[in-house]
Every structure is written in C-alpha cells, then in structure tokens.
C-alpha cells in the first residue's frame, strides 16, 4: 500500500499568486494512497527540505511528490533530501506547477484545478515507481579537440598540462587557424605570429598531445566519458616519418599559380605546399585537386627531387577509431565573402578587399612582406577607406548580429596603415563604435586622436571606379546627413564573421544544437557558456559566436577545465533512466521476438543481442539487449517495439498510462 | 505439379527436411495448408490458382517449428514474406528449403535468400487499379467523412483476429492487444476498439507489409482491411523510397536517411 507525501511549494509568490496552494494541498491530500500533504513558502530551502525529510521518517512514506518548479534545477535537490531520509531518490517526483501552470495562467479556479490535476497524475505515477540505482560508467581520460586554431591550441595545452592525453585534429595542413593569418593584434599591437607560433610549437612537442593535421571528424558515437570517434586522416601523399621538411619539393613544383589560402588569394602557392613558413608541422602536403600528377597522370617531379624519398602518391585516406572521454569543439569561424554586396564592388574591383586580406597585406609574412600595397598595381594607397559592418547588423542580408571583432580590427587596420604609410589618409565609415573590453576604448581613441584616422558615422551606398580611383559614396549622419564622396585608392570591407561552411553537418554528426546562423549553441547562455546540450562535448572560441582572441582563449581554458573536472573522476554516475527488454517466465522467457528493428531505430547504437540459454547452454531465444551504459533513455525503441517488450525504467508504459488515466478519470 | 511432388518426396526421403508445408485438398472446392512428414503423403500436394493462402505464416509458428526443418511451397507472395521474415531475423537460410513456384506454375529452386530477392526484383508489388481508385476515393474524403467511412467498414469486426493469425508478419509472441498492463488497445469490439485495433495493425505493418492480402482473405466478414495496408505501402514509398521486401534495406520507419522527406514535421 502506497504512502505518498505531497509537498506543495509557493515558490515565494511565483506559484501561490495564481494557484490556491492551500486548496491544492487539501484536495490532493484526499487522494487514495496519499498519506500526507502540505504547502510551504520555499520547499527548496533548508526548512522546506527538513519538512520532507521529517515526514518521510515519521509517516514512513513510500513515495514523494514535490509540486514546485521545473525539475531541471531542483529535482536533484529533492531527490537528495529523500535519499538522506532513507528513501530511494527515484521514489521522488516533481510536478511542475510553476512553468506548466502558475506562470502561464491567470489566477482563477481553473488554474488551481489544473494544479490539482498535475499533482494527481504524478501521485498515480509515483505509486508505480520502483527504486532505481545509478549506473556507473568508466571515463576514458583522453580528450578530442577539434580545430587547431588558438582555441584548440589553448584547450589542448591546458588539458595536456593537467596530465591528460589530447588528440588535436585540424582539417588544414597546419595548426594556427585564423590567428596565424593576422598581422598585429589589438589593443596592444603585438605581432600575432610572435605570440602564437611558440604555442604551436609547444603543441607539437607536448608529450601528451597527439597532433593530426589534414584530418577531420568522420563520426562520433557514444556518450560522456565514453565516446568513440572516427577520424579521417586525409592522404597527405607524403610519408611524414621520412620527410625532413627541407622544402625542396615546394620550390620545384611546376604548378605554381594556385591562390594561397593562407594569403587569402593575394599570393600563390604550389601544388605540394606548406601553407606558411612557420607551419606546424612544417611538412608539405600535396593538394590533389591541383597536382599535375593526380590530374593528368604525369609529372612526379617532387618524387624525383625528394632527397629522402618521402613522396607517396599511392597514399590513401585513413580512418582511425579513437576512444575519448570528452570532446572540445574549437572549429572556429569564417569570414563572409562580401560578394553579396554589389554596391561595394568586391570581386569587381581588385582594390576592394576584406579585412582578413588587409591583415595579410599588413603582415610581415604576407605577400607584400608587410607593405600596404594595392593588389591591382602594387602602388601604395594614399587614401584608404574602411567600411565597418560590411554584412554585420544587416538583417536584409541575413546577418542581424554584430560580428563583435570588426570595430576593433578596423581601428587597428587604420592605425597600422597610418604607421606604415606616412602622410596617408584613412577614413572609417561606421554605424557605432563598439569597443567594450579592457583597453579597447583607449585603443580606438588612440586611432582617432594620435593617428588622425577619420571616423565618419554613416554607411557607404556605393563604390565605383573612375580614372583609376575608387569613388566611395556615403553619408555623414553627424553632419546633417551630408553626402560624402571620397576618392580612395583602396577600400577595406570589415566583412561579417560567419560560421564555417561545414558547421551544420558537423553539429549533426556530434548531436549538438546550433543556432539559425549555424554557430554552435551553448547549454545555457549565462551559466553554461562552454557546455553543449550533449554532455561531454564542450565549446571553445568562435565556433559558438564571433569572438576576439582574449575571449577565445578564456573560453578555451574554461572548456579545458570542464574536461579536466570530468577526467578527475574515475567513473561517472548516470541516471538509471534506461530502456530494458522484458523478461518473463518460461516458455516465453521474453516477449521480445528478436526482429531488431529497435536496434536500427536507436540513435545511440545501444541495442545489441542476447542469447537466452538453458542450463546446458543451448540457445532458446535470441532477443534484444540494451546496453545501459550507452542508452540515453530517449524511448525511441519503446515507441517502435510492436510487442511492447521494451520499457524505460522510471518512465514505464504502465506509469505513463496511469498518468494519462488519472487525467482522463477526472470527476 | 508432378515436379513439386517428386521434389518434396526426395527431400523427405533423404531426410533433408522433416516437413513439407504445402497446399492440399480442403473442404468443398477449397485448398488448405497441409504439413507432410511422410514421403508417401507427398501425393497429396496440389498447386493451382485456388492456392492463395500465405504459407509463410507457418514458418514462425512454434507448433510447426517443432516438426523439424521445413520445405515450403512458395508462390510469389510467400517468397516476398520469406525475404521480409529473413530481414527481420525470424528465419535463417540454412533452416529452410524454399520450393518456389513462378506465376507460370514452374518450380524454381533458390540457392539463397539473396537469390529470392533477385528473382523478386522482376516481380515487383503492384497495387491494382481498382484498389488505387478506392484508395484515392477514400483519401479525397474530408476527414470526418473518412472517419465515418472506416467506422462503418470496421463495424462488423468482432475481433476474431483471423487477420492477425493469417499474416506472416504478425509473429509476435505477445501481441500489443494482449498486453494488458497497461491495456493501450481496447479489446472490446465497439467502434473505438475496432478502429484502434485496425489502425494499430496497419501501423505495425508500415514498411513491412508485402501486400499478400492474407488478412483480407482470412476475414470472415470480408472487411477490406487490406486497403489500409495497401495505402500504407504507397505512403511509405512516397516518403521513404520504393516498397517491397529487401534483405539489406533498413526498415523505413526505424531508420533515418538524410534525404527522407519528413514532410509530416517540416
């Protein structure tokens, strides 16, 4: 016979202002099997929990219903209280009177009635609850970090320095990401490569880090602590163990006119190439799409010249399976190609470039060795116009968000230009200057005051070429919306930061959620900024939203610390809410008929087979078996099983049915 | 079909199989399923146009399994069921001899289930024009009218479950309708109970039904329940690709393909 305690919480006034909590306690107290019911202002408070604990002990309760807020926050609280009073924690259920009732309805008799109904359904469910015990699963103390930009580098180093193994996977031939392309960094103007490359080398030399460049995630299965990742190591067409990185091949390759990705198309590279001199690893790969041998079957000059004989034209992609306990996604962002803005003339005029291209022009390792020169004729521009928000904050073009980094890097660009081109004139068209950050506002001031950058508040309506000049037509909204026309030599568009092209596909592979712009979503915007909704998968850097370097590095360390916390435990406790295939008395043994359609329906590959044998070991029946370590309790198999042979512990068919019937049998 | 009788005799005499599941003379002018365990009885085997029962249903029955390894007389609908049963892990290749019969009444032997599948690829399921028309007519009805149509059609059902017994794919040890803790599907043969039963039956056959019409043939009240499964076949084909049994194709409803239409949620 059930002895159930019902505890109604006022939630301050959140519930009690629209629900007559006293009546709910009174009415539910009359239900069959309810031994005790009461209401209290804050059930989650210490005195509130004490009421529950004492009642369990005094009345010998067999089940508890706490009618309060969403279980998301306080189910663990109340289950723990029950456990402390000697009751199995899974005999405690929460009825959500706040989000499901008081917050969404006005004060009325119907609202109170609904609250009573909600509690009644759970009273019926709790009657059928049975004690459950947490499932223990081991933790594989190896982390997989996806993306070798500054976020991935920082996360890898932090995890590795805590003593755990890291596998860092980068899709490009070298780690470094966008940061390696930058010239100087705001707000200190220290050289990006100078601060980054030592970190890159540290990664390559760290005994705990295994670095796989030119590799991508193919598949991710499993769950927190126990992921199984499949990595595709793309064929580099060289034997890395033999190659000594002399670079002879890259100088002799006859295919030389391939636009260099690293130099954003402003320079060229060969088909066998190292993306940049400071690359890690500093060993070349063959770009099969552009290699004469792969395309036409003839050439092999690199193979003939290679002093160590490291070229391998027959190398194939390799799929490697890994067991990892946690994943950090640090796949970064991309810069929108502003070709969707014909008014700016990008793609039409050679001297209209993006901010990232300007970085390469200003960089000492860039195609002009750090001199600001026009891509069209190599002349030094005397007048330069920067257009902020080229794409960002423009709902008409599909990007309503602020790309966050452009205000600062545009100020930096103008400043670098002024430093490099004495006597040059620079103009920045802007909407607002967003310089929130340590020393950021001071940096922008410096550009305006010390370096005499002309900030014009207004937008550019058109850029066109006339007599070798780029005519920039815009408006100065601070001067009574006076039209402005500037004859410029070069125009730099601060194009929006967007998600990587493969982001959506990657998110689907990993079962993490993403927003409408394909940036990955955090589990909570404030309190869980580095977690995803999938336990054990964390976010770092601009794959979540546009971010500057300091913020990226902080988040990467945050993600790393979450991984380290996870790895500090030898095993994890999991909710025992998992599917179970039934067993029955002989000669049936189980009503499962072994069609295994549940196995194909299971999103977590948690269903295998089990052979039921007699004492002599003869197989009597082949049935499905759920691996409780892999099962996430989603219930897809339950819905699919025709013979209803699978049930979820804690959410059985019988429990669900009793809840439904409790609602329907409302007199 | 002397050839069939000869083959069956050899199989039993050589003890390659212990039982032959085939068609024999029934009452009046009807045929019935017979289970021959003695070579001498093979003469009782007949095959003609009256043999429409789907014998595959016996392959999963415990009583028949007890008789030993079977050989089964298998015209096209039975072959389809065999492939589907194999895909659902209910029968194994080595535990069965298939005596295939072509639409031209020729005996054909199969090396493997895969060979059956290949044979069937030239004998695809086709939904006859008259059924197409009826299905379209029903689908074009407004919802309330369609509901009333089915309530009326299903009204004679008295839940004898002959449809279930005749269906080769209704092999569950315990049917959902017999699951009484909780009793999701009402056992009573009132309009709601009948509707629940037949809708559930059709849904459980979605992506699996091989259109043998055994359910309709078995129904003592002549209720056109095969219209439900025929219509379901079309729906599955429309949403998830072609219909028909396949050994390696994943079940339409339990598998996901990125190019599934999913028009019901999108």
Report on this structure.
The complex is a heterodimer of chains A (667) and B (266). With 667 residues, chain A is of the alpha/beta class. Chain A has 18 helices and 34 strands. Chain A starts with a strand and ends with a helix. Chain B has 266 residues and is of the alpha/beta class. Chain B folds into 2 domains: 2-120, no CATH class; 129-240, Fumarate Reductase Iron-sulfur Protein, Chain B, domain 2. Chain B has helices spanning 2-13, 62-65, 76-87, 113-120, 129-139, 143-154, 162-166, 191-204, 214-218, 226-240, and strands at residues 19-25, 31-36, 70-74, 97-101, 107-109. A 5-stranded mixed beta sheet of chain B has the order 2-1-3-4-5. In chain B, 33% of the residues are buried.
**CATH secondary-structure class of the largest domain in chain A:** Alpha Beta
Strand content of chain B: 5-15%
Number of separate helices of chain B: 10
Q: Biggest sheet of chain A, in brief?
A: 5 strands, parallel
Order of helices and strands of chain B: HEEHEHEEHHHHHHH
Number of domains of chain A: 4
- The oligomeric status of these chains comes to heterodimer
Task: Let me know the average pLDDT of chain B.
Answer: 92
User: Gyration radius of chain B, to the nearest Å?
Assistant: 19 Å
- The CATH homologous superfamily of the largest domain in chain A is termed FAD/NAD(P)-binding domain
User: Which segments of chain A are poorly predicted (pLDDT under 50) over 5 or more consecutive residues?
Assistant: none
Distance between the termini of chain B: 54 Å
**Strand content bin of chain A:** 15-25%
Large-scale geometry of chain B: globular
Strands side by side in the biggest sheet of chain A? 10-7-6-18-29
How many β-strand runs of chain A? 34
Q: Count the strands of chain B? A: 5
Helical fraction of chain A: 25-40%
Low-confidence runs of chain B (pLDDT<50, min 5 residues)? Answer: none
Outline type of chain A = globular
